[in-house]
Amino acid sequence: MFEMLSSAASSRRKTGRTTRAILATALTVILCVALPVAPAFSAPTNPSGLPLPRFVTTRSTPINVRVGPGTKYDVAWVYVKSGTPVEIIQEFDTWRKIRDVDGSEGWLHQNLLIGNRAGLVSPWKADGEQIPLLRGPAEDSGVRAWLTAKFRVEIKECDGSWCSVVATASPAGGNQQAFSGYLQQAELWGVYKDEKFD
């Protein structure tokens, strides 16, 4: 009888070990499947949850750009024109570190920025140099207007090569004139290479 009990106890121990091994393996498999694997690029963890860097425009005027993220910091410079394209490169709470076309960096409160897209036409070219605003997204589509380097345009959409834009001219003493057309994406500061949006 002792042998029989001993044999039964041994069998239960083996069954118990086997059950624990199966449960441990099952738990490992469940955890591996249930826990997400970190992707090669991780989701934004900045305050806004939006990707960095990104382009936006200034909302109003005048806007004080500060040397740090808060009103206690000194004013570095002032934007006197709304709709100026800037690049957000960092976020801290409700403050955004921006970079302008000249490479200058400073901080603005998020309420002073808007997600509208604008760009500057070939700011790296000499002042006065002209760039054609084309009727369509092709070199041979005809010229709609001639724009000078650093001319500000509203960007409506980009396909990775061409951008649909609106250029508004305000001649001295005259009425505003708006010209819709296309610019090569490489001719704009305010949109990334190969970026697509509509």
Task: Write up what this structure looks like.
- This protein has one helix spanning 2-34; strands at residues 54-58, 63-66, 75-79, 85-92, 95-99, 105-109, 113-114, 118-121, 130-134, 143-148, 152-159, 162-169, 177-184, 188-189, 196-197.
- With 198 residues, it is an alpha+beta fold.
- The chain has three domains: 1-36; 54-116, SH3 Domains (SH3 type barrels), CATH 2.30.30.40; 119-197, no CATH class.
- Strands 8, 11, 12, 13, 14 and 15 form a six-stranded antiparallel sheet that branches.
- Strand 11 and strand 12 (162-169) form a beta hairpin.
- Mean pLDDT is 84; it is low at 1-12 and 29-42.
Question: Would you spell out the secondary-structure blueprint of this structure?
Answer:
Blueprint lengths: L1 H33 L19 E5 L4 E4 L8 E5 L5 E8 L2 E5 L5 E5 L3 E2 L3 E4 L8 E5 L8 E6 L3 E8 L2 E8 L7 E8 L3 E2 L6 E2 L1
Antiparallel strand pairs: 1-4, 1-7, 2-3, 4-5, 5-6, 8-11, 8-14, 9-10, 11-12, 11-15, 12-13
Strand content: 35-45%
pLDDT averaged residue by residue: 84
**SSE order, one letter for each helix or strand:** HEEEEEEEEEEEEEEE
The domain count comes to 3
| Outline | globular
Distance between the termini: 84 Å
Low-confidence stretches: 1-12, 29-42
What is the tally of beta strands? Answer: 15
Biggest β-sheet strands, sense, barrel: 6 strands, antiparallel
Round the Cα radius of gyration to an integer and report it: 30 Å
Helix amount: 10-25%
Keywords for this entry:
alpha+beta, single chain, 39% strand, 6-stranded antiparallel β-sheet, SH3 type barrels, 5-stranded antiparallel β-sheet, 198 residues, 15 strands, 3 domains
